[in-house]
Amino acid sequence: xxxLVTGGxxxxxxxxxxxxxxxxxxxxxxxxxxxxxxxxxxxALLVRGDTAxxxxxxxxxxxxxxxxxxxxxxxxxVGESVRRPADYYRNNVxxxxxxxxxxxxxxxxxxxxxxxxxxxxxPLQVPIPExxxxxxxxxxxxxxxxxxxxxxxxxxxxxxxxxxxxxFNAAGADPAGDIGEDHDPETHLIPLALKAxxxxxxxxxxxxADYPTPDGTCIRDYVHVTDLADAHALALEALVAGATSDxxxxxxxxxxxxxxxxxxxxEVTGRKIAARIGPRRPGDPAVLVAGSEKIKAxxxxxxRFADLRVIVDTAWRWHSSHPRGFKGQK
Length: 330
Description:
Elements: E1 2-6, H1 11-22, E2 26-31, E3 45-48, H2 54-63, E4 68-71, H3 78-83, H4 85-106, E5 110-116, H5 139-158, E6 161-167, E7 169-171, H6 189-197, E8 204-207, E9 219-220, E10 222-224, H7 225-240, E11 246-250, E12 256-257, H8 258-269, E13 275-278, E14 287-288, H9 293-299, H10 308-321
Parallel strand pairs: 1-2, 1-4, 2-3, 4-5, 5-6, 6-11, 7-10, 8-13, 9-14
Antiparallel strand pairs: 9-12
């Protein structure tokens, strides 16, 4: 198929581009490179641009005979979304609707949407199923949920077929070690721990150690980025084969505490990682673990990199060979 991947130069997007190329799809990446990296897209065609540009989108759809879209382009920092909600609604919702409108106008009817577990807010049950109430606790989650709601109505009115994938904590890197996580600022636990192991940070801060968990620190579900990429490809293939639009969680179904992740990073790197206990962050639930049985049953998805040590090891291959990201490799 001819597939447009918005935000395909970002972390999850670039790994999905690689998976699509392996499956012999023809991929066009649209990215404004505000946070993505052109070096990450491999042999895919990279177009620098924005989903707000309807004329450009319509030209891309026509010129490259695009048949499906995978939509990753979004702002995704929870804390930033609380400070700057207007930016998040403009970038995530307004631009997302611009993309959907251009798809409908050009007859592109298949969409795989990058959503988030942040749509659930404070969990009422663990593991969290897709039927859990969606009560986002921050503008980031609210903007993703707003687009999910729009997709439902666009589907009814215009025949848009979609799969919305709600990720838990994306982690790891391609096993080849040549693409991986490169954010500025970096907010994710595993890369922060590995950067501390490399001496790029003097220590890692642990936000709260008084939660009702075995060691007092938050527990999260980590899912390997390559497994996420595989889920996107499976979801698209299912839509093309006639599957109805649906929403799926993506996680391993197992939770690991902050201190467990840091200890695992020490074991993988063979280096001591200094940690300091700080205050809780407002709105951080004690436990977030995915219920992902639905996508396993419907699409046959199975995580290949489910073990935490394997996830951290793949991330370490990337960070140790690219300590300063794509532009600063050894």
